[in-house]
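So, could you explain the following?
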Amino acid sequence: MPYLDFERLEALDPAAYLATEPYPWINPAGLLFEGSHAELVATLPELSLFEPVFGKVRKHGQRSHDRYGLAYRPELALSDAWRGFLAELQSERYRAAVARLVGVRSVHLSFHWHFAPNGCSVSPHCDARRKLGSHIFYLNTESDWDPAWGGETLVLDDGGRFHRDSAPEFEDFDRCISSQALGNWSLIFTRAGNSWHGVREVRCPEGRMRKVFIVVINRDDPLARMQRLLRPAMAGY
């Protein structure tokens, strides 16, 4: 079964994307085939595989980003659907399409899932400098999620006022642009000096969770490769 609609992905216009304000972002529908999206939603990894990340102190006084998180590893117990999807994401065709869109020659990708229960939020922030951007696939549908519960990623426009090493609240921004996040939608954005984004506090019933799968788009140059190699070795220091 094919998962990614490569023709739809490759039809995205890099010039229009890079010219988008307040920073490059796009919220396309249907980058997954409908049946494939449904299969991925139906066979998500078990919550027992996830690590709880709650109350973790962030730099610059920003509020914690609470969730259950799972980083992809080849040895994870995954469904055939997720293994097939990840194989497509690790293909040269996907990497080339993403690199072309964000305007670089090559990228290095990593992958993780986030599940967020009631009360969780992602405070306004800009991603780490080592990242080029992210491709977020939304995994809630009308059968398990009410839009009134929230969960949309917000693209935030600060008008160039805030230093990335600060902690503004959602109300401090000139604009909060809400993504479409229910069903077969995804969000691609490029990290820039003002690439503020976040998710307001989720208000959902017990047992329901906001679910996303994130492709992290990383720089792929000699310095970035050295940093990736050194990061595990330095983790204990």
Remarks:
- Confidence is low (pLDDT under 50) at residues 232-237.
